[in-house]
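REVIEWER CHECKLIST
Item 1: Sequence provided? yes
Item 2: Single chain? yes
Item 3: Sequence as submitted:
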Amino acid sequence: MLQADAPVSTPSPLAPATKDFLAGAVGGCASVLAGQPLDTIRIRLQHGAFGDFGQTCRSLVASGGIKCLFKGAAYPLLTITLQSAVVFQSFGIACRAINRDQAVLPYEQVCMAGMFSGAVQTAISTPVDLLKIRQQLQVARSGMASYVGPLQLLRQILKTEGLPGLYRGGCITLLRDIPAHAIYFTSYELCHELFEPGSRLTGTHSPAALFVSGGIAGALSWLGIYHFDVVKTRLQSLPASVSPYKGCWSCARHIYAAEGARAFARGLGTTLCRAFIVNAVLFSGYETALQALSGHDPANAA
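Item 4: Structure as written out by the authors:
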């Protein structure tokens, strides 16, 4: 992953922050394609109106074929590049700002840098998630008169709700993303060091260790904040003008009163499977791209 600047044998003309940005973009694009089908199922399970995993899959495929599993992919494909790039770039900047002297960052400093990157990327993830959620919850499919396409949905929200409408659920997204990214980056470094002792010092990576470490980090980060994500999905699924929820706390109380505590774990299994796949691909793509951009193994792979 990332560490404070260290001497390298073959200097790259690109600044470290630029390399982090570009490598994050590569990993982000690959991760969207890998995880979109399970993400569509996750959103519908969290919404609570589409049955269990099997019923949701069957209804999606029956309504429009396999392509329905990729409903809402246009927004993340266009934006996840920027989102992942910003996450890794801001994480790298924070690492270098926190610790300018040591080649290997202590885990608590990795955690702090992760929190910073989570806060920064909330500005992007809030509107991206809102648009994706509403796209995925549509019953109508492309070609139907009632179907709302991605750009049409964006224009519709801006026209009826304004820019604040795109940031509905911003507070709960912040509450989700700060701890999630702290867990994310710290657990990745811990796992990578566990699977390849000394790798944080040498910067060496094996494809298998990258893949498994990334997958575990992604799953652990979701496990710690999933209840926030359930609330966020419900809150962002409808405009404020027609939503029964006044805010995130109102939404959480409503879910608990109507459906009990189990509702906060609905779709968790699907989410953890998706998180493992997506983040295994994301970190593998990031580290591979970063190595190619640097012309050598990154000095500190977390």
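Item 5: Key structural point noted by reviewer: Confidence is low (pLDDT under 50) at residues 296-302.
Item 6: Recommendation: ____
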